Give the backbone structure.
Amino acid sequence: MVRILLALLSGIALGLAFEPVAVVALLPISLAVLLWCVHRQGAKRGALLGLLFGLGFMLTLLFWLRVIGIDAWLALSGFEALYFAVAGTGLALVSRLRLWPLWSALVWLAVETVRGAWPMSGLTWGRVSFATIDTPFERWFPWIGASGVSLLVVLCSGILLWCCLQRVKRRQVLAGGVLGGTVLAVVVPWFIPIHATSDQLLTVAVVQGNVPGNGDDLLAHYREVTASHMTATQELADKVAAGEEPRPDFVIWPENSTAVDPFRDAQTAQMLTTTSSMIDVPILVGAIADAPDDEHVLNQGIVYDPVTGAGDRYTKHHPVPFGEYIPYRSRFGTENFGRLALVPRDMLSGTGVDPLRIDGVKVADVICFDVAYDDTITAQVRNGAEMVAVQTSNAMFIHTGQIEQQFAISRLRALETGRTVVVAAINGRSGVIGPDGNIISAIEPRTRDVLVQEVQLASGTPPAMVVGPWLGRLAVPLALGAAFHPLLSYRLRKKKASGTSTTESPETAVEQGESA
């Protein structure tokens, strides 16, 4: 019962390590407690403890999902908790091996990798690396990426537990040395940081148009939202003409700054033409565009030039299941789930991996939840992106902690890519984040404002863009091999001893795995 209670509480504690509470000290402690709970337990008990941990963690982390519905919050949290049941099983199996802190970290990363890819693109929200902003771990992002930092955090938690167990066994000197070495290893990147290799500067304008009323119903005011962004940009053009503001190289509008196709809606098209002509620089517009078949939609960032019109486009790679498209729509049917009628047309996924070209600058564009997936940013940076733009709406979650959680991920992406990250939100948290992860300037949520900021471009590919993705891929087979090694060894010994009597069982084999 003690382990059951601690597993649940440690999951809640891990959720509190993330924004908006952000008690970062709970991050390694909560993971170390989970590792203690499953240490030398059987597979079934490990699954139960992992499930309870996952429930506590996900219900806390995704508390903001209640604005969609209590049922959605409970359903998604419960489903995601199943992954932690798998993790609990794996952690219990490898806890008897030598170097178990390392194998535990690999098991965690393997489950985190699968959880972030399957099914339906998976859910990357809640990767432990996303809670490391403003901690010593954050400086590892440009070296080993989000996957590598998750591995490192769990490894350090395992070493912390190992040191505590050694103290119980009166091996304080050994435990102290290992713990001290671990702390030194974590802070190494602070002394050898990766800097941007370009001295080129440009000026960017970010427009946050806000949403009328309570701020959480964009669709009810979509015409007003587009008009607000247009008016704010035209006001900036007047200030530029009067010499009160420097002329930006380009302007960034957020996701859903126009919720209708600007190529088919005459009113929106006229707004964009007029506004881009007044400011006389390209505008990166967030738009919902009709797909060629008219049966689907696309969530796009569109470069709108004042002379040539629409240019490069980025299409959101990871639309949200049941929010932006309905999986197996014909099976569900809107007559059984009335809220599915709010998504009349499914959103298609984008496949582009090249950065946008805006006034000669290569910009990696990501839309909303795309920022939490590695593939969207990694490919564009490796293809020469010099900065990152995050276009997001999130108006539905404006009164929740989701806003701060996503902004923290954007800050970590700046560190990981070594690029300036510019966040444009409808009414959330817009801002400019430097390559070091620090906030250069920002607009307060639920305000209408324009931010004009000089930013630094960057070139080259940080090690994380190569190392990070491969760490996740390699962790899966390594974790599987470590988890099943004791049972496979048992079967091999049983086969070798065929014809002789033995009372060895799989559970005994797991015990003997300690010598592996």
Notes: The CA atoms of residues 365 and 463 lie 20 Å apart. Residues 2-193+466-515 form one domain. The mean pLDDT is 89. The chain has two domains: 2-193+466-515, 201-462.
